[in-house]
Amino acid sequence: MLKIIIPTIMLMPLTWLSKKNMIWINTTTYSLLISLISLSLLNQPSNNSLNFSLMFFSDPLSAPLLVLTTWLLPLMLMASQHHLSKEPLIRKKLYITMLTMLQTLLIMTFTATELISFYILFEATLVPTLIIITRWGNQTERLNAGLYFLFYTLMGSLPLLVALISIQNLTGSLNFLLIQYWNQALPDSWSNIFLWLACMMAFMVKMPLYGLHLWLPKAHVEAPIAGSMVLAAILLKLGGYGMLRITTMLNPQTSFMAYPFLMLSLWGMIMTSSICLRQTDLKSLIAYSSVSHMALVIVAVLIQTPWSYMGATALMIAHGLTSSMLFCLANSNYERTHSRTMILARGLQTLLPLMAAWWLLASLTNLALPPSINLIGELFVVMSSFSWSNITIILMGTNITITALYSLYMLITTQRGKYTHHINSIKPSFTRENALMALHMTPLLLLSLNPKIILGFTY
Amino acid sequence: FQLFIGWEGVGIMSFLLIGWWYGRTDANTAALQAILYNRIGDIGFIMAMAWFLFNTNTWDLQQIFMLDPNLTNLPLLGLLLAATGKSAQFGLHPWLPSAMEGPTPVSALLHSSTMVVAGVFLLIRFHPLMENNKTIQSLTLCLGAITTLFTAICALTQNDIKKIIAFSTSSQLGLMIVTIGINQPYLAFLHICTHAFFKAMLFMCSGSIIHSLNDEQDIRKMGGLFNAMPFTTTSLIIGSLALTGIPFLTGFYSKDLIIETANTSYTNAWALLMTLIATSLTAVYSTRIIFFALLGQPRFLPLTSINENNPFLINSIKRLLIGSIFAGFFISN
């Protein structure tokens, strides 16, 4: 694990010591190399975890998320090149340093063994993200967005600290490996109910759950492109990952405690999908679509069946890649028209056909077209929720329809129809942008061929 | 699962092809409408898949049929919903006429012969399960009967040549669903094959007419093409005759058998009556097309470039013509 963490930390001196015209090249290349190292972790010989040290380990659940994280850093760097091109050199280096710091913390979070270290790193990832959103965001609302983001997450996770400390007192250790063996059923009492709530609320806010999701559209819309990418792709998955880890300890409370959250998620996913249909702001649409997909993951985790865990992990990876790609596409629109309103940049298929092809692929995977991994994740979640209760299929089905509708609505509004008269002076697509989209899409398509890797530990 | 991949795939292809002329707003909304109705049908498909997974532990058709589960109401309802969405049956039908925004060859392929029969095909594949479930059979029968009558009546009032043919497709699909409802999946499959020939040909002929009249699709503005476009006229008349099931053309072999079986089977009399009325209406609207488009005096602008010289067009219509005449005979023997 140090093989990945130390190079990532070393990326920071790399940026500070590089020459002015080499910073992007150096950092992007080296981060790509680091992601190649992390691919080797995917080779999991058994269902037990691979242990590297007392503090770090990786198992079939965290390995795909780790690879996603390391894969995204070069993509984030490529995406940020344009909007930082006019900044002074020191600020560019500062930005890259922030991203690298975030990356290091994320890698450590996904491979943490102890729950307390997981918690500390979980909170620590908030800091670089906050700095990225509030310093390099584009509108004045970014300060408000940062505030919402910080305080929502903190409010949710402080109870988690208390809960973890109390569990440490009770059972003597918070090590993942040991918990599997020490696990005793929690007796049904008021304090245990609060314990359950304390453990879960942090992740519910992070996911986000429908009632607590207000920070997400703000943060996504105001963040610069790399911030949006990493938020949508990874930080939301931190919540899912945490939930998947911690629910192993929380039985049997989950069987009745989960009901309100399940109802909120099921209803919330339809609500947020419907909001997407009426959005005028492109990034806001993608943000709400993230909430909708994550609600599916929450449902899957709370049902706690093997199939649903498989669906949750597959959906997390698939959604990470798809959302990140959609944000990159939205950013390419933003850089040209400097506005996020969808109808200002319509009819793009006539002018930028290759970009239209990427839009099409991204929208198709967003609506979970077979045989992409998005579909596999969604299908598994739908199947398991059908077994939990037959009626949920109606809600799930409605969600699938509305998802298809807004994805294609987004496609049609930006690509098709007559182009506007003021659009004939936009710059054509850069190679960098096309490479970015291709690098997003290729893992997605390749994983459709062999989804075993991302199906998590219940495969 | 593989069926689902293909199922969704044709849905998306339909979206892309209907919206081929993407500069047109109407085309884009029609494409989105197609996806909406298809997706609603897909919910039914997913529900059926979920039920099969949890009650028969498999998505494999052979295994499902061997296990022969009882109480198959829920999954078969799901499959029926899927077929309704994909094949434009009564509840989910508006997308098919709107789909005529696409280019004519697209309509000829997707929306007359191959894609829309995917729904019927699905029901045919599951017929061993449907044989045992009388409720679902009556439901399909009534659904098909309502569809075929409703869309046949709609076809009578349309003025756009492609829309008339679209409604006629919908009506024939209803007929196929009726055939499944009376427990004759093999006949339904035969009708799929034969219908493909003459419907595709009808679409291609209408495409030829539209193109030579400079994108004129309204039949009230056509006329007198009998002498101006002899080859198209011939194929149009033969196609319409085959559609109505004139003896010894293709349509006869499947359509007549369906009507005979429906008459002699112990089935819902009301559905039967609706089917018979709808079948007679096919003759009516086909004649309407012939009357307005071919006979009478020309009602289009005087300076037109009517020509049938394009060899690609003529060759394809020629092949479909031969198919329309002889395919029924060859397939049934």
Automatic annotation (TrEMBL), chain A:
Q: Tell whether Membrane is among the UniProt keywords.
A: yes
> Which chain regions cross the lipid bilayer?
21-41, 61-80, 92-110, 116-133, 145-167, 193-216, 223-244, 256-277, 284-303, 309-330, 351-369, 389-412
Protein topology in the membrane: Multi-pass membrane protein
Which keywords does UniProt give here?
Electron transport, Membrane, Mitochondrion, NAD, Respiratory chain, Translocase, Transmembrane, Transmembrane helix, Transport, Ubiquinone
Top-rank taxon:
Eukaryota
State the reactions this protein catalyses.
Answer: a ubiquinone + NADH + 5 H(+)(in) = a ubiquinol + NAD(+) + 4 H(+)(out)
Q: Where is the NADH:ubiquinone oxidoreductase chain 4 N-terminal domain?
A: 1-109
Q: Which residues form the signal peptide?
A: none
Q: From the Swiss-Prot or TrEMBL record, what is one GO molecular function term?
A: NADH dehydrogenase (ubiquinone) activity
Gene Ontology, cellular component aspect = mitochondrial membrane
Reported EC number(s) for this entry are: 7.1.1.2
Class of enzymatic activity (EC top level): translocase
Biological process terms in GO annotation: ATP synthesis coupled electron transport
Its primary localisation, in coarse terms, equals: mitochondrion
User: Where in the cell?
Assistant: Mitochondrion membrane
Q: Does the keyword Metal-binding apply?
A: no
Q: NADH:quinone oxidoreductase/Mrp antiporter transmembrane domain: which residues?
A: 112-400
Q: What does this protein do?
A: Core subunit of the mitochondrial membrane respiratory chain NADH dehydrogenase (Complex I) which catalyzes electron transfer from NADH through the respiratory chain, using ubiquinone as an electron acceptor. Essential for the catalytic activity and assembly of complex I.
What's this protein's family per the entry? Belongs to the complex I subunit 4 family.
Q: What is this protein called?
A: NADH-ubiquinone oxidoreductase chain 4
Gene designation: ND4
From TrEMBL, chain B:
Keywords attached to this entry = Electron transport, Membrane, Mitochondrion, Mitochondrion inner membrane, NAD, Respiratory chain, Translocase, Transmembrane, Transmembrane helix, Transport, Ubiquinone
Question: Could you tell me the EC number(s) of this protein?
Answer: 7.1.1.2
Q: Write out the annotated subcellular location.
A: Mitochondrion inner membrane
According to the entry, every stretch annotated as the NADH dehydrogenase subunit 5 C-terminal domain falls at 285-333
| Annotated transmembrane regions | 6-23, 35-54, 74-96, 108-126, 138-157, 164-182, 188-213, 225-249, 269-291, 312-331
**Biological process (GO), any one:** ATP synthesis coupled electron transport
Q: Where is the NADH:quinone oxidoreductase/Mrp antiporter transmembrane domain?
A: 2-281
What Gene Ontology molecular-function terms does this entry list?
NADH dehydrogenase (ubiquinone) activity
Q: Which GO terms describe its cellular component?
A: mitochondrial inner membrane
Q: What is its membrane topology?
A: Multi-pass membrane protein
Tell me what reaction this enzyme catalyses: a ubiquinone + NADH + 5 H(+)(in) = a ubiquinol + NAD(+) + 4 H(+)(out)
Q: What is its main location?
A: mitochondrion
What is the name of the protein in this document?
Answer: NADH-ubiquinone oxidoreductase chain 5
Q: Which organism is it from?
A: Equus caballus
